Amino acid sequence: MTSPIDIEGGGTSVVVDGEPGPEAESEVVKLEGRSPGQLMWLRFKRDRTGVISAYVVGFFFLIGLLAPLISKLYGKNPYTVYADERPELFDSAGVPVQPNGGISSQFWFGLEPGNGYDVFTKLIYGIRTSLMISVAVTIAVVITGILLGVAAGYLGGRTDYFIGRVIDFLLAFPAQLFFIASMPVVVSLFVSPRDETPTYVRVVALIIVQWFLGWMGLGRILRGTALALREREFIEAARVSGASSWRIIRREILPNVVTPLLVQATYLLPGFVTAEAGLSFLGVGIVEPTPDWGQMFSKASTELVMQNDITYMFFPGVSMIIFVVAFNLLGDSVRDAFDPKTAR
What we know:
Helices cover 67% and strands 3% of the residues. By secondary structure, the chain is mainly alpha-helical.
């Protein structure tokens, strides 16, 4: 008696008189040789939405990384004030005379009303600035979440109690209001209010402020994971063998928290991108002449732009929507690849 069976990884084989045939045995051998990471990668490649989202996200990071090169090939930069250098392109109010914000073969995305910055180069440099800050915040949050969350979950006792109360206290802060109120305070720690604030100081302040109230959710998740893992048999075996707590955390706990860590990181980064853009929109983040995604939204909301060039909002708005949606879809796909039992 023969019957087909499905093999994970593609293809079918046959069972002969209740025993797997030679094809099935070879497939089983192949599957036994695959690591969990390989199986995850196989499931991820089958998710068309996840693969497309990964390409879109990679494209944005590539644009940010290569922004200086693209600007050089394009022949313009985001700092040139074309309202002064090419006044014939603007009317008396500083609005581009050509329709749609002055979009042409020379200025692909048009010119910014007022100062007349090139919109295309300002956008790609703005993407570069926002992603650079958000990646730095995400790395800082992940490191803090690992150190405090895993330590609290594995060590327990007073360590867990103290870190837990710190997390509860910080979670009581209204994040957005804290960001807005604390940015000027953090900046003033580095620069006197009478002096002009360098861009790097604003970047450091943005990273510190978002990190301070951004790590608690990840810390709680890793604490719960470590709390469950410390009761497992392989952890007990490591303790009995005389392994130190640091060795157990490094060799046994950390490899087993990679899944929730990676999934949460893919959700955190787009959140930090929008938070950073929001702070720049409100005027407490990156300011001109340094290009920034949120700063472009702030410029687009001014009366001059809204009344004379509504197309200015189109490019930064659409690009941010595409990036955030693609990153969230990527996070869903990564989660499903690690845990195939989840259903979207």
